[in-house]
Amino acid sequence: MAPDRLQRVADQVYRLEDRFVNLYVLDLGKIVLVDTGTRKAEDNIRQGLRELGKEVEDIAVLLLTHHHVDHVGTAVVWKRESRAEVDLHRIDAPVAAKRERRRTHGVEARMKVVAAFMGLFTPFMRGPPLETDRLLDGGEVLDILGWPVEVIHAPGHTLGSCAFYAREAGILFAGDAVNGRRGTPEPPIVMEDVAASRDSFRKLTALNAPLLLPGHGSPVRRG
C-alpha cells in the first residue's frame, strides 16, 4: 500500500510535499489547490485526491502564489482536465504564459550561485504556457467555495508574489514570501526585488497568523 501523500495541517487543509516544495489541498466540497508543485507532482496529487475520496474533476480553483515552475508545474494539467480556474497576480501572469522572462537575484555567495543556476536552466525546466483566468491585484477578498480569502500582494521573491489569508480560519498561505525551512519564519533567499522582498516579509509576519503555511519548509504555528 502506498504511503499517504497528504498531511492534515488544519480542518479541511492538507499539505502535500513535492520534493523540496509544499503545495496545499483544501477540501471544501470541491478541491482548491494552493500552488501545484513541480511538473513531477502530478501522480502525488492524484493519489492525494484519492485519499480524500475525490477525483480530478473535483478540482475547482488553483490559487497560485507566484509564477515559478516549482509552484505552477502541474497547473496546466488541472486546468485542462478539470477546467479549474487559475488565479494569479497580473504581474506574474505574463511570465507564466511565457510572454515575459525575469531575472532572479540571490543573497549570500551560495545563493548567488543558485540564482545564476536558475537563470541558466529555467528555460529548460519550463512547462507549457499557462494562461490565467482571474488576474489578481492584491487587496481583494475572494469567495473561494464559501471561504473568504484575502489576497495580499507580497512582491519580492517575484514581482507578482501573493499570499492568501483565510483570516477566519487563521491560516496564511505565504508562498515563497516567507521561508519555513528551519521551522521559523525567514525571508526568501532568491528574489526578483531584494528590497521589496524584505518589506513583504515584515508585512506578512506582522500579521501574526495562527498558522503560516510556507512554500518551503514546515508549517509555523503561533500560540
The general outline is globular
Beta strands, count: 15
Fraction of residues in helix: 25-40%
The whole-angstrom Rg is 16 Å
> How are the strands ordered across the major sheet?
1-2-3-4-5-6-8
SSE succession? EEEEHEHHEHEHEEEEEEHEE
| Number of domain units | 1
- Estimate what percentage of residues fall within beta strands: 25-35%
CATH class: Alpha Beta
Question: Low-confidence segments, ≥5 residues, pLDDT <50?
Answer: 108-113, 115-124
Tally of helical segments: 6
CATH fold description? Metallo-beta-lactamase, Chain A
Mean pLDDT: 91
CATH superfamily descriptor: Ribonuclease Z/Hydroxyacylglutathione hydrolase-like
Structural class: alpha/beta
CATH architecture: 4-Layer Sandwich
Whole-Å distance between the termini?
37 Å
Largest sheet: 7 strands, mixed
Give a summary of the structure in a few sentences.
Helix content is 25%, strand content 30%. It has 223 residues and is an alpha/beta fold.
Structure description:
- It contains 6 helices and 15 strands.
- The chain is α/β, with parallel strands linked by helices and 223 residues long.
- The strands form 3 sheets. A 7-stranded mixed sheet has the order 1-2-3-4-5-6-8.
- A hairpin with a 2-residue loop joins strand 2 and strand 3.
- The longest helix has 18 residues.
- About 7% of the residues have low confidence.
